[in-house]
Amino acid sequence: MILAAIQDINFWLYTSLYIIYFITVISTIVVILSENRNPVKSIAWIVVLLFLPVVGIVFYFFFGQEYRRQRMISRKGKRKLLKNINYSENEISNLPLFLSSESIQEIKLGYALGEFIPYPGNKVTIFTEGESKFDMLKSKMRKALKFIHLQYYIFNNDKLGNEIKQILIEKAREGIEVRVIYDDVGCWKVKKHFFEEMTAAGIEVYPFLEVTFPQLANKINYRNHRKIVIVDGTCGFIGGMNIADRYRDGVPWGIWRDTHILIEGPAVQGLQSSFAVDWCFTSRQLLSEKLYFPVVAPKGNTCIQIITSGPIGEWKEISLTFLKAISNAKQYVYIQTPYFLPTESLMKVLQVAALAKVDVRLMLPEKSDSPVLQLASHSYIKPMLKAGVKVYFYQKGFIHSKTIVIDDEFSTVGSTNLDFRSFDHNFEVNAFMYDKELAVKMKNIFIADQQQCRRIPWSYWRRRPVASKVKESIVRLLSPVL
């Protein structure tokens, strides 16, 4: 009798749990549908919820919630930052005369999306490997007279990381203002004492969206992927390289091929604005003083717009500007990206360009640091090849470069990959650059890298083993949530 009662209790307990779980799943699906997201992404999450019991609901609460309606900084705070930059929309009519009507359109779009200001008169130095980039970074930081603002997704406690840390500590002891933002998930493997040593030396250090319970599910999926440094408001770095030995020393199968740039000129204000917004978000301190936004004389001929994007805000700023630039292309579009998981709109605009006989070239790594992401990336190659896109696999090592160059006028370098995560979940930043001489340099770098690649013909790709195609197709279903 007692046994029967226990069995009865267990039955009703399990039944109640099943009912609660079923209601939770249905409620979550209703929420997903009511948010009117991209249908592909919505379907992907519904598939996960229905076919991965328990795991699916956990995945959703950790990685699937939408925060686009929130703000990183108040309107009042944004106005305080912008007061240091005397600029109005009317000044777009005074942009350099050499710019094409297509470039003017793209610049106007960037300004409309987030008041991202175009700055003429900049000098740009391109770095395609870590040694020269980090040598220049260390040199510029050692010469700092007022402040250093540094922000990286990864700031490792390794040889390079300690070299950078030591310079920052030395400058702080000299009385230079030093501020550091690191991403909490990007630096999960880094022990706290690494950053505490900087704090003890007088450096202000903050993690971006620190992941702690009970807010774990609200924060883990939204990461700050930006990689920028500003020194004295007169020069700044932006690109794809984090602070870790592999960015300088390479990987077991070859070099680490990346792209980073040094900007000298008025556009450094754009980098400082990006940092100031993130600093306000993490520290609740507004860096609105003139000290951080000095007037910088023109140093070169490149017009630059610094554009940021993230899961907070109304628009997907970088994604939309990419789409506009590619759709404006008349001659060629050359792209380098380590991960290629395009949104439907990006895939279509690349196909349309290629079908219209624009020379579209896509460079991906032969071997990736993420086998799962590589499988998903490969699932998108077939529709690219069928439309006439030329696909190249980089063989000399791992290509982590995130660049686009178009028609000998437009080029962009930054932290943004061509994937759902960069477009939807990460906080990213890119320099959108308008200058013929610089674009030609970027094009020539792409062509030089092409010599280290093998081109993937359609005849080869369609004859791959069926098992490979099946694995890629399965992983592709999850690409919007990877």
From TrEMBL:
According to its UniProt entry, the protein's GO biological process terms are: cardiolipin biosynthetic process
SUPFAM superfamilies to which the protein is assigned, alphabetical: Phospholipase D/nuclease (SSF56024)
Catalytic EC class: transferase
Span-the-membrane segments of this chain are: 12-31, 43-63
Q: Where on the tree of life does the source sit, at the highest rank?
A: Bacteria
Annotated membrane topology is: Multi-pass membrane protein
Alphabetical list of CDD domains matching this protein: PLDc_CLS_1 (cd09110), PLDc_CLS_2 (cd09112)
What broad class describes the main subcellular location of this protein? membrane
Q: What is this protein called?
A: Cardiolipin synthase
Which organism does this record belong to? Answer: Coprobacter secundus subsp. similis
